[in-house]
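dude i think i finally got it to work??
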Amino acid sequence: MKVVRKLIPMKVYNILINLLPMIILFSVVMVSIRIITCIYSKEKIVFYKELKNLIYIIYCFALFNLVTTTDFESFSNNFIPFKEIMRYHTTSVLFYRNVIGNIALFIPFGFIVTDMIREKAHKSNVLIISLITLLTSLTTEVIQMFIGRSFDIDDIILNLVGGIVGFIFYHLTYLIYKHIPNRFKTNRIKFLFFMTMIIIFILFFIILYEVGR
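look at this
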């Protein structure tokens, strides 16, 4: 535990610790339900898909926790586009945290939503991903108004950019995957490929916090 604590920023560490009981409980419940439903329906369990879906939901919990507990310089609402963005210097801590951070947090979201839609519909559209990202970010900002925090339209704009970047990143990785020989396109390879993406997102998130300290 001490080694883990030294490797990640305090903010990220505290979020993980606070979410851990909920994650454990939720995982036990969801895994139990999936096992039972698969037994009754005789559905084949694909491990990497089940783990992927579970991680997606845990990410959404962590995302909501982070965006509703991050410290703000001001608690006043902002309804004017780009007002807050334009007042940050590109080399300042606030720029890394409030601008780059809001984009980075939603890159995995765009990636995840694109993957989930493509898995079911076998296609994806940037307009649909943008709409889902927009609705998610807008809902989060509205909720913040009712829990003693602030609404910032610039956060919505930045989150939308992050969702679109996640969409693009997904398709870039999908193009790489398509060029893998068919004999390597097994569930094990898909699982390793997925976990690689997760690790990249986590490292990017940690680097962002370290740079912005």
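The chain has a mean pLDDT of 80.
im so relieved honestly
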